[in-house]
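Async update (no meeting this week)

Hi team, since we skipped the sync, here's where things stand on the single-chain job. The sequence we agreed to prioritize is pasted below, unchanged from the tracker. I ran it this morning and attached the output directly underneath so nobody has to dig for it. Comments welcome in thread, and please keep replies under the output.
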Amino acid sequence: MTAIKKADFIDSVESALQYISYYHPKDFIDSLFQAYQLEQNPAAKDAMAQMLINSRMCAEGKRPICQDTGIVTVFVKIGMDVTWESDLTVQEMVDEGVRRAYQNRDNPLRASIVKNPIGPRVNTKDNTPAVVHVEMVVGDKVDITVAAKGGGSENKSKFVMLNPNDSIVDWVLKTVPTMGAGWCPPGMLGLGIGGTAEKAMVMAKESLMDPIDIQALKQKGAETPVEKLRVELHEKVNQLGIGAQGLGGLTTVLDIKIKDCPTHAASLPVAMIPNCAATRHAHFVLDGSGPSFVQAPSLDDWPVITQESSEQVKQVNLDNISQAEIESWKPGDTLLLSGKILTGRDAAHKKIKDLLDSGEGLPSNVDFEGRFIYYVGPVDPVGDEVVGPAGPTTSTRMDKYSEMMLNNKSEGGLGLMGMIGKAERGEIALASIKKNKAVYLMAVGGAAYLVSKAIKQSRVVAFEELGMEAIYEFEVKDMPVTVAVDTLGDSVHKTGPEIWKVKIQQAN
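Output:
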């Protein structure tokens, strides 16, 4: 019988979570770099360059790949011959490892978990509890896989109960375009097929822990039904032309992963969960000899990439910007922003609305008129950092506040000039942008540490009690963004994939 000590389990979970916060898996880096080299759309290629540069910076600096350091999911496979030297349950040991990892002084991770999902949604402050799946298996060891999944990609999870003879391929190809770019492609799609509804979802999530090997599979030749489905979906999803960050391009998915199991004769449950540009997972085994630590990779595993400056890049001074200037911008333009911007995301927008509805109004020092807002919840800074990793959050969640934020003060709005976030905007936001001749700019999801280096000053101006969701004022210097929606309401997230879908079809 193997005895697993409480301290060994907790230490190993803590170490693995710190590890995955700043080290991408090597297979992901290799696959993303290959896609970068093949990409023909300059905007998508630049987005992947930022992801790769950010990844290397995080590996060197041991800081989070993404500001959304995720909800922790842990798969624990316990050998039947294992005994425990612990006064805690497996769930409690995992949570203690999470607590220590997320409160690490050298590399604090953002606590994003709120209790009482139907309200009040109060942050637990330490990112616990984790989601733990326990399975009893043959043997005398404990096999553990830890993952941290960001909300932007988790929110795009899909499930359907198909009829037994329905086409899985047709459902996937119909569904992926509806997911938008909030899951920060290119990444992986994990499918769980069979079992029951909850079993399919767990299989889909667990499939994302497998290594990227689609190119090796193609070279070998697909043999089983699952292998053939993986290859077919990989080719056909990429033919949709969605591309990196939804800008249009050759690579939308780096791999398709599938797990399946027997199901009822009348059923065909299918779950699909995307993994984003911040793919984070690690695997280790406890055998009773002590804690298990994942070996650090070599920095030689990362390609050295530099962003190429272009004559088309426009320098923008946000402290002295005119309506005429923003009306000159076109979808797909690359800008380097300098000056002061305000921040705000879900909780801040809700509080703003509540204050306006109550008649109390905003604090006297908060004025959005003629300014830009950045949808972000940064990681706490360490050392001499102004702010920790500070990449964009998914903008569509703020769509319902567009009228309130963009309308002129004479119409009861706040007079915002522009917004910065990631992914596409919905029809409500597009209509409001067009009506108010505002703009929406896109920062790259998956480049949080890189973006943070453009932030030269930071201060909280309101709602400090909201933590990472407070309103900050950032002073930025050369912050890279792409014009996603211009003042006419034209969106690159609509035109880009349409153009590249046609180009890919013509090339084939």
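Quick observations from my side:
The longest strand covers residues 471-485.
The chain has 15 helices and 19 strands.
Reply here if anything looks off.
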